[in-house]
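hey all, quick one before standup. I had two proteins in the batch that finished overnight and I want to keep them in one place so we stop losing track of which output belongs to which input. First protein below, input sequence then structure tokens straight from the run.
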Amino acid sequence: MSKAIQQLAQAIENRQPAVLATVIEVRGASPAKVGAQIVLLPDGKTAGTVGGGKLEAAILSDARKALTEHHSGLFHYKLAEEGEDAIGTLCGGEVTVFIQPFLPAPQLVIVGGGHIGRPLKIMGEAAGFEVVVVDVQAGLATVPELEQVKLGEDSYVVLITTDHISDEAALRYALTTPAPYIGMIGSLAKCRTIREHLLADGFDPLQLERVYAPIGLDLGGVTPQEIAVAILAEVIACRHQKTRDTDSIKLRRLEMVKA
């Protein structure tokens, strides 16, 4: 297995974005060979090579754009000083490269499971999320089970445990992670009380902007399945940055839940 493929496999296992560039066609003189591959990670590290020099620099530049814009495609490079697709060299050949970003599926972490968690898991998987269900022990102020789950910038956390103590403990931990969405089930009274606990313990109100409580869009449903739909709809809205109240989407943030 090549170094590029080894690095790509490791990135996928670690839920880390990566871009693979593969030389698929070479015409004339070129430092690149058909089948040569290079992997680019978000921090700029690479593995493998596609010939080095200006050609490799041009390929990596397009790979960075592919990683940012989330698109795959064929890219043509002319090893000449001037002209369309020229990269400023004198080799005279032409190279075609397929550049493909590999992006981890968004992660939906359901803390508590139960009658709402079951349909939410099914719906989340159907919507393309990698779903993780975490059962925590009720009544404890710690959540070691949740702490074992790696929460990143594309993790969406749903807190639906059986008691307010577990929900608050899980919320406190989730706030220490980069998770962009943390939804917590419960009444307005429960949410207000937990908000006051957090502020009293030094949490910044800005930290609470990621917390949506009571959880879910207000769709009017009352069954577990309908509540699961409301939760998933809110997660999707946040993932696509539809985070401001509009006529069609009403989002409730914890920092706005005041007495």
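OK second protein, same deal, sequence then tokens:
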Amino acid sequence: MNQDVIRDVEDLENRLSTPTEGVLETMARLEGDLIVLGVAGKMGPTLARMARRAADVVGGGRRVIGVARFTDAASEERLQAHGVETIRCDLLDEDGLSRLPDAPNVVYMAGRKFGTTGQEAVTWALNAYLPGPVCRRFRDSRIAAFSTGNVYGLVPVASPSRESDAPAPAGEYAMSCLGRERMFEHFSRTLSIPSALIRLNYATEMRYGVLVDIAQKVRDGLPIDLSVGSFNVIWQGDANANALQTFDHLATPPWLINVTGPEILNVRETAETFGRLFGRSVAFTGAETEQALLSDSGQAFRLFGRPQISADQMIRWIADWLARGGPTLGKPTHFEASDGKF
């Protein structure tokens, strides 16, 4: 396989869902079925496929089930084609939630970020209320729940956030995500649910992510906002692998884990790199500050190893993908927002 070019969506999704040795080892130890709640987002389909592929390798007849509303029928069909069972369910419908099959292992990916401004109540319902009914429904299960590095707030570039740092969320989205964490903590303690909270910073692939946002603007001759001048990213396949391996570390109260890449990338330098790759000049707006949304993933590196794909590799892949007219999801990260409004 040519590692220098990602040919098409099929090639991309195959790479994003290839299980690592660590995932295979975790899945070999894991007993029983796995259900992914909120599977239809940007990351869920390849995480579910990775779990399915790992389960097929290690054996044991395990079911991997993906649950979502599936407003995009094609997304559901693609999962089914790769052996992931699917169930259509609005998780806020408690009758529907109650009818979901039992599963001893739960990956919780439901949530809302973009469109929060003006729709704050919906965001709080999905991010902070829903974990309560889910925990009651799956009180006899083990839960790995996605959270976000946004709960830390902006920090000095020289001091990325660690799991031991106190949260300082800015804006309703980040506050609702801290609410999600607190609900999982409450039910983990009161119902003795082994859990993990996965504080993810900017999973990235060819079709979305901070690097794609910057690359598209450079390619299209649009100015780059420097209001938030630094960021972390992690290849989505590496993030998938880290998330599945958290099942080896669940605890009561929940175990906290930062998941992102090792590099602290500078927005100006990254844009200039894309400028060289596209042969375009780059314009900038705003002034760089000394604070950004950054996390230290040293704990994840010690336990799971460093990411297999570097930021430099992602940059080269994305430039090539966009230059060839590869599809994108049209879902910007708004990483440059410093006020927490999404």
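Flagging for whoever picks this up: The chain has 13 helices and 15 strands. Residues 136 and 189 are 12 Å apart (CA to CA).
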